[in-house]
Structure formats: C-alpha cells, structure tokens
Known about the structure:
Helices cover 18% and strands 40% of the residues. It is of the alpha+beta class. It has 2 domains: 131 residues, Diaminopimelate Epimerase, Chain A, domain 1; 103 residues, Diaminopimelate Epimerase, Chain A, domain 1 (Roll), CATH 3.10.310. The chain has a 17-stranded mixed sheet that branches.
Amino acid sequence: xxxxxxxxxxxxxxxxxxxxxxxxxxxxxxxxxxxxxxxxxxxxxxxxxxxxxxxxxxxxxxxxxxxxxxxxxxxxxxxxxxxxxxxxxxxxxxxxxxxxxxxxxxxxxxxxxxxxxxxxxxxxxxxxxxxxxxxxxxxxxxxxxxxxxxxxxxxxxxxxxxxxxxxxxxxxxxxxxxxxxxxxxxxxxxxxxxxxxxxxxxxxxxxxxxxxxxxxxxxxxxxxxxxxxxxxxxxxxxxxxxxxxxxxxxxxxxxxxxxxxxxxxxxxxxxxxxxxx
Length: 277
C-alpha cells in the first residue's frame, strides 16, 4: 500500500501465454508491498487474481523488478512477467532494448517485433548448492523416482521427462514434489515430453501457485535440462498449455522469446486497501 492509499492504487493486468500477472508501478510513488497485500491481490475471488505479482521500482542504474507468488511468498525470477513489463516499458520509452535487474541479477530484454519480446534470463545454475538442493548430488539425475533434473534459474526447478505429459495427474504430481525434502526452498515442477530434437511439450506446476498455463523460468530450466541430457539441442520450441515459447541457451545466458499481452489497467479501491490494515 502507499501513504495516500485513500485515492486508490493503480495496477496493470498482463499475461504471457496465460501465465498472468498484476503489475504495480512504484517508480514514481512508494508502495509498501507486503505478503498480505500480495495474497489479497492474488485471490481470484476476492482480489484481482494472478500467478505472480511484479513490482517496478527505480534501481541504482536500471528498472528493478520484485516478484511475489500468489501465496505471498517471494520469487527471485519470473521470466514471463519480466517480458511483459519489459515490453510495456519499451513501448513507453520508444526503446527496442532494455536493461533491468531482479534478485536474479542484471537482465537484458529486446523487442523482437511482431508482438514478440525476448529476455536473457542469465546463466543456469547447475551445481547442487546453487539450485539449491539440501545436499550434494548429481543435478542431472536426482535420486527421485523418474530421475528428474535439477536446475536453478534464480528459482529452483525439478524437470521430469515423460512419454506423455497429458497422462500425468499434474495437480497431485506437482503438489507432491514441490515440497520434496531435497528442495529446502520448495521447487517448480515440470513434466516434459520430447517431440523432436528441437521441440518439447511441457506442463508446469509452480511453487506457491499451482498449475499454470505457462512459465518462463520453467521453460528455460526445461530447455537446459533437455540439452544437458542430450535429448535436444540448445535451441528449442516449447509448447505449453497456454501457447509457445522459444528458448535458446547461448554463451551469454538463456534467452526466451514469446508474446505478451497488457489486458487492462485498473485502480484498487480505498475500501479494498483498508480491508488489509
């Protein structure tokens, strides 16, 4: 909330392939975003509803983004939200490139034209302590049934390669693995099916959220996991429940490209904000 919340609080609703976000712009005014506010906003019945909340602030040298999950917990990275906000700011400023920061570090975004936005999500974290995992183990084949791959993209991921993603009860499967003791910070869970050496079908369970139609960081983690396993090359198309992303693991990091949508802008009412006090 902010000091003059009697006037209401503006927000934007955006999505990338149905992976949806509320965005608060705190560049020109202070907004005190608490876990309680994030949970209230994320409630799809009593709030606005989102997979993640993104808060824009002025960093030392670049736009800074802070993320919250729908349950109020923090997230260091959110690829689709980063693309959505980057596209908005590039339209606002007339730029076709944008440097920004998150808890993940410094990132670069590019307007690719035709409604597509790319973001470099940085280098993947492949060592067990960086994911992080609870103890030393081979991140390429965890000692869990299904031998998933562990990858850090600023947030932890657990990728299972299966024959048919649509036969998996993702609600039960994702919930069971999100809290696996190997992941002290919980984990995002992906089930992925190799279609071709440059094509993956994937479904996602996000920690603190549940099943989502898409996930940018999960797509990056899955592309890295598949390439490390020798199942694909380093440039792949990933079909998610909400649409298609393109991921390219390059020398300078993992680039992700796809569409974004600014759905609407609105104002949280003083009544709603007061109910959180």
